[in-house]
Amino acid sequence: MRFNFVPAFSRSVNVEDVSVFGTGQGFRGRACPGSSLFLDLAAEYSMTRRWVLALDATYRHQGNTLVRGYNLTGPNPPISLNSGTGDAFGVAPAIKYNWKSNLGVLVGTRLFPAGRNTALSITPAIAIHYVH
Q1: 125, 110 contact by CB (below 8 A)
Q2: Tens digit of pLDDT for each residue in 99-126?
Q3: Which of 10, 56, 88, 109 could form a disulfide linkage to 118, CB 3.0–4.6 angstroms apart?
């Protein structure tokens, strides 16, 4: 069993032109990303020496990002953008098969249902487990 708690804090940053914050060519301003939090609770259950069931349950919160500035081209009214906060709950069930004590393969999927400012996401997962 495992539990992860990962907070993250960001500083404001100068933004020029096109950016990941949704600004266009000629934009000048600042972005203030909100803080975020990630929680992960994971567990594994050994059915036999070779077969293992695994499950991760996650929660992610992203704070509001505020972007303020103006455009150099055309009219120069102030621009203010808000991303809004976002929350996502997810699960990642998987099954693992171990050929040896140090070699195995994990097959599963990661599912994030649609949430507040979060789109539905389904991601297959395949991993080789090797311990040296």
Answers
A1: yes
A2: 998 999 999 999 999 888 888 999 999 9
A3: 88
Residue boundaries of the structural domains of the chain:
2-130
Distances (CA, A) of 14 to 25, 68, 78, 82, 98: 14, 10, 15, 16, 50
Question: If you write DSSP's letter for every residue of 13-70 in order, what string do you get?
Answer: EEEESS-TTS--TTEEEEEEPPPEEEEEEEEEEESSSSEEEEEEEEEEEE---EEEEE
Residue 39 token pair = 């929680």
Tens digit of each residue's pLDDT (9 = 90 or more) over 66-77: 999 999 887 778
